[in-house]
Amino acid sequence: VQLQASGGGLVQAGGSLRLSCTASGLIFTSNVMGWFRQAPGKEREFVATIDRSGSRIYYAEVVKGRFTISRDNTKKTVYLEMNSLKPEDTAVYYCATGWGSRKDEYDNWGQGTLVTVSS
What we know:
With 119 residues, this protein is mainly β. 0% of the residues lie in helices and 52% in strands. The strands form 2 sheets. Strands 2, 4, 5, 6, 9, 10 and 11 form a 7-stranded mixed beta sheet that branches. Strands 1-3-8-7 form a 4-stranded antiparallel beta sheet, with no helix packed on it. The protein is globular, with a radius of gyration of 13 Å.
């Protein structure tokens, strides 16, 4: 199983980025997907999760209303659209297969993509 995350970069506060995570080696439509992030010196934290069809979605409170998770099963890709970015959103963002808000509910993890938000 491989999860390849991309789309990170440097952006000013208030800006936007779209992250992508493309899966291989698994049946994508059988997997619920999630995004987590880890800021320097902090624990990895839940960001958002989306079910197999995209009909059930949950967000962490700190990103609700600013981030949007979606998926394209034909491309085996899950996205995280991030708007109104804040410096505190700076982190390495990881995609993973699983469901829920705890790290131990996820099994396969991507390598992460760095998002840096400047003030």
